[in-house]
Amino acid sequence: GESVGLHLPTLSVQEGDNSIINCAYSNSASDYFIWYKQESGKGPQFIIDIRSNMDKRQGQRVTVLLNKTVKHLSLQIAATQPGDSAVYFCAENMYSSASKIIFGSGTRLSIRP
Amino acid sequence: EPEVTQTPSHQVTQMGQEVILRCVPISNHLYFYWYRQILGQKVEFLVSFYNNEISEKSEIFDDQFSVERPDGSNFTLKIRSTKLEDSAMYFCASNEYREGYGYTFGSGTRLTVV
Question: CB atoms < 10 A from the CB of B96, how many?
Answer without folding.
Answer: 15
